[in-house]
Amino acid sequence: MSKEKSDIGIDEEIILGIREGNNLAVQKLYKLYYPPVLKMIINNSGSSEEAQDIFQETVMVLYDKINKGDFELSSKLKTFLYAVSKRLWLKQLTRGESKYRKDSIDDYEDSLVADEAGDAVQEHETIEKNLLQMEQALAGLGEPCKTILYDFYILNKSMADICEKFGYTNTDNAKTQKYKCLQRLKKFFFKSVS
Predict the structure, then answer these.
(1) Residue at 56 is within a domain
(2) 94 and 7 in one domain?
(3) pLDDT exceeds cutoff 70 at 23
(4) Same domain assignment for residues 106 and 67
(5) pLDDT for position 161
(6) What is the pLDDT of residues 121-132, one digit of tens each?
(7) Is the predicted pLDDT of residue 116 greater than 80, yes or no?
(8) How many domains are there within the chain?
(9) Where, by residue number, does the polypeptide cross the bilayer (predicted)?
């Protein structure tokens, strides 16, 4: 079997493992693909701590894309992870968040992979921003709405459980309250977005 074929098999194995929540897949991902990222960041005015942070964020981008369900790898996983890490490192350098600053990084991959990585980073940042706004909207919601929505959507509690917890006379009343709370949350969320 050629090296490229075995790389593709390993990449698919890692992606499937991440999708299934297998910690061994994540360990293999770090073992195989972290060293080139570490080298790239250290060679471009970074530290090993910064490389760890960048790679962790890169893994989160990959995790989000895999769990979104429509992730198709158009290059080797190593190339994708390197491109995302490079993009994140460049952003950190241009924001001046690195201990050191350097204006360029040697090219590694073609522009197609760079665009794919850029899209993945942009999507990840948008999701993070929306989650932060949703957290803020939820915090401003107050009780009992905050707990009702948290119990239903995060803890997956049934309406019967919520009805019992809050002392509603029946589940229809609890559903009505949940609906009103959800409408208030939407109002807070879209107010914070605009």
Answers:
(1) yes
(2) yes
(3) yes
(4) yes
(5) 92
(6) 777 777 777 777
(7) no
(8) 2
(9) none
pLDDT, residue 139, reads 75
Choose the final residue of a domain: 113, 133, 166: 113
CATH of the domain at 48: 1.10.1740.10
d(CA 104, CA 17): 35
Going by C-alpha positions, the residue among 37, 190, 34, 57 that lies closest to residue 124 is 57
Residues 6+ apart with CB under 8 A from 81: 29, 33, 37, 55, 58, 59, 62
The two structure tokens encoding residue 56: 């962790």
- Whether 130 is covered by a domain: the verdict is no
Looking at the fold, whether 98 and 155 belong to one and the same domain comes out as: no
What local confidence, expressed as pLDDT, does residue 1 receive? 45
3-state helix, strand and coil shares in percent for the chain, rounded to the nearest 5: 75, 0, 25
pLDDT at 31: 93
Domain enclosing residue 21, as ranges: 3-113
CB 14 within 8 A of CB 29: yes
Same domain, 65 and 152: no
pLDDT at residue 155, rounded to an integer: 85
Tokens for 50?
A: 């910064």
Residue 18's Cβ-count burial label (10 Å; 0-12, 13-18, 19+) is buried
